[in-house]
Every structure is written in C-alpha cells, then in structure tokens.
Amino acid sequence: MEDDNEPEQSSWAHLPDVCLRHVFHWLDDRDRSRAALVCKKWSCAMYSGSLWRCRTITFYGQPSRARTLEFQSALWYTKKFGKYLKHLEVKLSNPYNTPFIKKFQVTMKGLLSHLGKCNSHLVSLSIKYLELDGLIWKNVVRAQFIKNLATFLKRMSKQLDYLNLKGARITLEEGCELLNSLSSLTNRSFISEINIEDFFSLHLSVYSSALFHQTMSKFHSLTILTFNYNCISDELLDILREHSSHSLCTLNIKCHIHDPHGQVVSGMSWANLAKRAPKLNVNFFFERVMKHDHLARILLVEIPVRSISLRSCYFSDPDWTMRPTLTNLLPAYWHGLQKLTLELNNDRELLDNELLQLILSCKRLLFLKVWAFLSVTFMERLLQNRAEKKCILTTIKVRIYTAQYDSTEEERLLADIYRKFKYLIDSELNYFVITYPMV
Fold first, then answer.
1. Nearest Cα to 281, choosing from 301, 306, 302?
2. Which residues form the F-box domain (predicted)?
C-alpha cells in the first residue's frame, strides 16, 4: 500500500543531467543563479563547464542600472568559471571620456591577469573597435592596456585559434608588438584566423614595412585573414604562399578611400599564391574607392575573387564612372564571382543594361545586393532571365533610388512584377525590393 503522506516529486526531479544542462544553457546569469537554489542537483548543474565556455562582456559608457548589473554579473561569472572559458568577446559600447577608459583598462588588466593564471582552454578572443587612436585614450593608459593584452596573448599563444582586434587603430609598432605576442614562445604561431581590419591607424603604408613582413612571416597555419588593402604587397603574398598556402582558404580585404591603396602589386604574386593555395577565395570590400583606374590597379585578373562589395556610402563624385568597371573589370571574374554588392549614387548614369549583362555573364553568382538608381523594368528583366535559368541567383536585395519623394507609381509596378513572378520568388528566392527617394 502506498504512503499517501509521501510528497509527490515533480517530473523535473528526474530530468537527465544532459537535458538539465541544456535548459540552463538558455538561461541568463540571473536566472541560472536562482535556478541553482532549487535543489542540490540543480546547483551541481550550475557548475557544469559546458555552460561557461562562451562569454560576452559589454562595457557600457553610460549604463542604466540594469546594464550595470548585467556587466557586473558577466564579469563576476567570467572570473568564477574562467577555467572553463573557450570563447571570450569584449565589447566597448559608447566610450565617452577618459575616466571611463581608465576604468576599462584597470578592469581588463585584472580580468586578463586572472584568466592568464586559471585558463588553459581559450581558443577565441574578440575585442573589437577599441579605437586606441582616440583622444580619450591617454598615452599612459593606452600603453598599459597594450602591454597587458600583449602579456595575455603570449600566455594564450599555444591554444588561441582565433583573434579579432578589428578597429583597434594602433601604430605600426604597437600592432606588430601585439601580433608578435602570438609567436613569442616558439617564434612561430599556428593560429588559424586573424581579423586585423582597421587594426592600424589611418593613412599608414603598412605594405612597405619590413617589421610587418617579419611579423607576418611567423604565422604558419592561417586559414582566414581579414585585413586592409594598405597591408598588401608582393612581399606579403610571398610570405603567405611560403608559410600558409597549405591551409589558406579566405582573404577578406577592405579598401577604404583614406587608406593608402596606390601601391603596385604584381599579378604574378597573386597567381603564385593562388597556384600554391588552391582553396583560396578572396573577398573585396571597397568603401568610396570607385574610380576605374584605382580599381583596375587592385582588381587583377589573377586574383581568385569570390565576392566584391563596392560602396559609395551615399557620396557622389563626377569622376566616379561605374560603366567601365561593370563592363571591363568585373566580368573578368565570371567563373568565380558568387556575391556582388553595389551601393552607388549613380544619378548621372543609368546602368541597367550593363548591370544585367554582368549578372548574366557571372555563371556562379548567387547573391546580389544593389542600391542604385535603376528603372523598375530592370527587376522585371532580371526575374525573367532568372525564370529562364539564364542565371542562378538565390538572393536578390535591391533598393531602387528615385529622384522624387512620391514613388507610388514605381511601387505599383513592383507589386505587378511580384505578382507576375510570385511562384518563382516564393519558392526559389530570398527576395527584397523597395524604392527609396534620394532627394
């Protein structure tokens, strides 16, 4: 006979540990700490290493009370369970004055020192948009932060596989000091992915630096490298060919109008790298570099280009003529180009025919994003060609600029086009098209 006085246990009490950990995984720090008070089993789940492998700490410039508590909690738990940490992301949100930066530096010094002593599993570190060239970074604070970070990278160099210091904006010497920290123990590094986009200060001709070349020669297993075109030289390409050709898969290259980009790079250097690194794909991101002669110097036919993004950032210049770029330069990549992004203020030239011909010539093009002055009929022609399988696009995102506020007629025509190709769009395409007044 059952004892009616025995308390009935909830089904949660019999939940397998693996399921319980999965539930805890979706809770934030506050809810985890509360759940850990329920019973001994749940308290043990709180200490599962799998829950603390990934952490994001956001330093808010002017935080609300809730965000202050969020930050304190994230920092406390990162330290408490630091030995389990594999992926750490640190964010700076609206740093607004020198005292805040000083506090950030002191806090990071303590955190990095603690992790350097207790952690042996960290494989990924991201600290983006430090903007160390800003006025709020006083020289002493800046130097101390770089020293602390370099020391930490040296300690983690054997296990770290991914480093993202995008937007650090530091001098050539400081940047090479940080990168050299990854190889200081053995004079070589086997890290596989580095993001040093906007890592160096503006206007630096990094490509001519022997110090930079020496630093990059210590990386022997790069798979993905993200950086700026002002780092590119024949010497760098030869270094990548010699040390990382067996592993190199992706180069993401940003070229900004304010970064030096007039250096001459040999097509032979690109060809030699591509030959030794058969898996290599190159993605270019141009910002306000729109002149044909500038692009022609950079976009050499020997480069295995997979993606190109050309953005004018709403700027307009009479010297920016896109027609020769669309008809002469980009078609050279017809066999490999898979992604094309164009954000143009082309109010002086209509490019419908040239753009459509380029799309049809690129046999592997899957992704198209265009913000430009186009006629609405361009969309009908493009979709008709897609329906006839003359191209293989799977994503079409278009913002059609108009010269007047009232775009009612254009919107009506786009609706008619959608209805005409509704089955194709709904079944095969990621499709988004709107009009946008540019007045």
1. 306
2. 9-55
Residue identified by tokens 């290599």 is 280
Render pLDDT for 258-272 as a digit per residue (tens, 0 to 9). Answer: 999 999 999 999 999
Three-state DSSP at 33 gives: helix
| Contact predicate 241/268, CB 8 Å | no
Rounded Cα gap, residues 304 and 239, in angstroms: 18
The CATH architecture of the domain made up of 51-437 is: Alpha-Beta Horseshoe (3.80)
> Which distant-in-sequence residues (6+ apart) come within 8 Å of 319 by Cβ?
291
Q: Which two tokens stand for residue 132?
A: 């160390």
Task: Indicate the pairing of strand 281-287 with strand 250-256.
Answer: parallel
Supply the pTM of this predicted model.
0.92
Alpha helices in 130-260 (DSSP H): 139-156, 172-181, 210-216, 234-244
**3-state SS of 181-215?**
HCCCCCCCECCCEEECCCCECCCCCHHHCHHHHHH
Yes or no: say if 334 and 361 are a contact pair by the CB < 8 Å rule. Answer: yes
* Closest alpha carbon to 50 in 73, 32, 69, 76: 32
CATH architecture designation of domain 11-50: Up-down Bundle (1.20)
Query: For residue 3, what pLDDT is reported?
Result: 52
* Structural domain boundaries in the chain: 11-50, 51-437
Tell me the two tokens of residue 370: 């265009």
Instruction: Sort strands 430-437 and 162-164 into parallel, antiparallel or unpaired.
Output: unpaired
Q: How far apart are alpha carbons 182 and 138 in whole angstroms?
A: 26
The three-state secondary structure class of 384 is helix
Low-confidence ranges of the chain (pLDDT < 50): 1-2
